[in-house]
Amino acid sequence: MAQSAPPDKPQSGIRGKGTLALLATFLASLWVPWLLSLVSCFLSLWIVIPAPTFSLLPLGVGTPEVSPWLVVVNAIALLLVALRLQSSWIYGVALGVSLLGLLLSLLPLIQFPAANARIATAMEAEFGAAVLTPPISQVLRSHPFVWIDAFRGIRVPEVRVDRGIPFATVDGVKLTLNLYRPSTVGLHPAIAVIYGGAWQAGTPANDETFSRYMAAQGYTVVALDYRHAPQFRYPAQLEDVRTALSFIQTQAEAFEIDRQRIALLGRSAGAHLASLLAYGQSPLPIRAIVNYYGPTNLIEGYTDPPVPDPINTCAILEAFLGGNPDQVPQIYQEASPVNHISPNLPPSLLVYPSRDHIVLPRFGRQLHEKLQASGNQAALLEIPWAEHAFDAVFNGVSNQLALYYTERFLAWALRELP
Q1: CATH architecture of 128-413
Q2: What is the pLDDT of residues 33-49, one digit of tens each?
Q3: If you write DSSP's letter for every residue of 362-375 in order, what string do you get?
Q4: What are all long-range contacts of 169-174, with beta carbons under 8 Å and residues at least 24 apart?
Q5: Closest CA to 139 of 216, 73, 62, 211
Q6: Domain definitions of the chain by residue range
């Protein structure tokens, strides 16, 4: 008897797999543009929506800084949606979502020219035209914003780095500093950098890209440590920074520092400590201070916190100062830089984001007004679209702007005097 041919199961299986693959490809082509539109628009929304909690704060900080990337992604989503617009009603919705995302992601770039013009005018009016024309010997950034750097990053040449240099041991806590020096040996102007972190966290390695970048510009950069709250309350942090500056004074030659050309730079809580030293009694001469979004009026900071308040400002201040303003009013007064303004202070560059929900920008304006009213040189660099800690994204839109003027200010303030 002739045998019948076996069933064509393998061919059926192949056809089934091919059908599933085609279906998957169809669904992917249908939903990928929609999902891309939705995700890119969601991220772009954080350019205008303040983060209500600490866990969401990175979105509020980071999205304005990567807006060039979001512009590209939103534009791609918009193009993909437009190509499929007639195939389904859902693409009409996706088109609106993509347009919204694109407009939101363009906001920082649209605001950039006016903000840059205001800052340039303020810098020149306060410090003179020379602040915008640094010495030929220093190769600084050529423009306040470079598109390609937003995508590839800002180039940082190699420098000499020494980490973990001990400068004191207090209450069993070993305090260290990091040293960043140019490749050329010799005495250099110096920048003492104090990190932020609500007085409760951080290390001298914070924002190391900035420290290395400035060292490559010809500065000796010294990043300082201090004890943290709530275990150690104010004035422990101030005392530690003062001790570090005294150590720098004694080690200036070894660290290749020109003692007469030293600036302080701090971020957030670090800017608060830097301001107290620059406007109070420093153990070594300070030629200039750069204040990145530092608290200045701690009583008002407690009684009028940001809304939303993602870090619980009142709890942070109580942990740092040991109580509320009713319990320790004198400490709040003493710890507020705005109460230490007098004539003949070092020139100040104040860098504050207008959308800051950690340190309200009005405190930067308040300090600026008081410095100028006392006859001091001070310029306020306010960035309309930026949030607190914007410079964590080193090649971001806001930090490119801030870096452009910060390095020019420091070149002017730490220049060799005749």
Answers
A1: 3-Layer(aba) Sandwich (3.40)
A2: 778 889 999 999 999 99
A3: HHHHHHHHHHHHTT
A4: 170/227, 170/236, 170/239, 170/240, 170/243, 171/227, 171/232, 173/227, 173/232
A5: 216
A6: 9-107, 128-413
